[in-house]
Amino acid sequence: MSGPGISVVICAYTEDRWEDILAAVSSVRAQSRPALETLLVVDHNQALVDRLGKEYKEADDVRVLANAGPRGLSAGRNTGIAAARSEVVAFLDDDAVAERDWLLHFAEAYTDPRVLAVGGRTEPVWASGRRPAWFPEEFDWVVGCTYRGLPRGRVRVRNVLGGNASFRRSAFEAAGGFATGIGRDGDKRPLGCEETELCIRLSRARPDAVLLIDDRAVIHHRVPEAREHLRYFRTRTYAEGLSKALVARSVGAGKGLESERRYATRVLPAGVARGLRDALLARPGGAGRAGAIVAGVLTAAGGYLVGSVRARRGGTTFSVPDVEVAVRE
């Protein structure tokens, strides 16, 4: 078996996703290249810890852990990193399933010792059965998925996307863990960008580091019905603006918004043009997609401005913890 060993971390927080969590674990156990272990990290929910502990009490390849840090996704991931036994730690969302060769493609990339992070492609699984006609592919990041405008194939990137990502353990030793205070916290406002901030910090700590996306490493991410509506779209884009302001505060606006400038000046105008063309050709959803792109830009910009003001006033704080890996292969 070529490449390093891989531990998979799945962070969970609610029993409402019970069947999704079981499906995520099953998809890891069915990999063509087996994981060394699956770590289920539960975010401050003892009932879920107990229930998962009973479910997997006979499983040698699954461990259930309680988040050892403050509430939120970042601390949950850091808990998983600290407990992981493998050289590489991969992350899978608790409402996603990985294709059979997901870890195989990650492992292949790590045969190059310069590679410190590898991400994959995340496809949406819409609760309604298909993409809403108004929902632009350029904004699939709103529902945690790969969006139009990302490069195809196996390519170098500034940052990987957290729900389908992996890092070499030495990346955390060089740069620290995921910053708390940026990412998700259960059902509260859907913030993000913690993986962006980490990847930029990693590239500064290790200028020789190679970060990749391999779009053959595919997962399928469930999009609940509540997220198929414009209300959630606006909430998520506003929260993204807030998060980008924190990233810019941490690493500087130059690097923190480098990819976003290309996205805003090239990818989104092309998306608006496609939407308007489809509207002129009487194709369903064209005008809606063009309008959603404009609305998304405006709400994200509003969030960024509000977040920047809060950051300057000291109203929002975050911290970058050291992550120690207690057990090695």
Give an overview of the whole structure:
This protein has 329 residues and is of the alpha/beta class. The protein has helices at residues 18-29, 46-55, 73-83, 102-109, 169-175, 194-205, 230-251, 253-256, 258-280, 286-313; strands at residues 6-12, 37-42, 62-66, 88-92, 96-98, 115-126, 154-156, 164-168, 210-223. Strands 1, 2, 3, 4, 5, 6, 7, 8 and 9 form a nine-stranded mixed beta sheet that branches. α2 (46-55) links the parallel β2 (37-42) and β3. The chain starts with 5 loop residues before the first strand and ends in a 16-residue tail after the last helix.
What is the multimeric organization of the chains shown? single chain
Q: Distance between termini?
A: 15 Å
| Overall strand count | 9
Helix-and-strand structural type: alpha/beta
Average pLDDT taken over every residue = 90
Strand percentage = 15-25%
Uncertain segments are none
Helix share, percent:
40-55%
What characterizes the major β-sheet?
Answer: 9 strands, mixed
Which labels suit this protein?
single chain, 329 residues, alpha/beta, 9-stranded mixed sheet, 10 helices, 42% helix, 18% strand, globular
Short structural summary:
The protein is α/β, with parallel strands linked by helices and 329 residues long.
Write the layout of secondary structure elements.
Elements: E1 6-12, H1 18-29, E2 37-42, H2 46-55, E3 62-66, H3 73-83, E4 88-92, E5 96-98, H4 102-109, E6 115-126, E7 154-156, E8 164-168, H5 169-175, H6 194-205, E9 210-223, H7 230-251, H8 253-256, H9 258-280, H10 286-313
Parallel strand pairs: 1-2, 1-4, 2-3, 6-9
Antiparallel strand pairs: 4-8, 5-9, 6-8, 7-9
